[in-house]
Backbone:
């Protein structure tokens, strides 16, 4: 995420999802997503990918997940 449009795209898709809390930081170019039980990791990942942004790293239950 290198501009406010990029971070805005991530924000728009995540705010429509139920059962998650998140922060999007343009400064650090990251999005931290915390999902409640029952929200699948893969679902969150696909929503972010649909924005056209690249996901570089994923962590689930403290373990790094290969992308």
Residues:
């Amino acid at each position: 995420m290198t501009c406010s449009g990029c971070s805005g795209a991530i924000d728009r898709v995540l705010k429509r999802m139920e059962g998650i809390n998140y922060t999007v930081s343009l400064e650090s170019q990251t999005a931290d997503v915390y999902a409640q039980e029952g929200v699948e990791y893969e679902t969150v990942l696909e929503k972010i990918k649909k924005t056209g942004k690249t996901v570089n790293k994923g962590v689930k239950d403290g373990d790094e997940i290969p992308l």
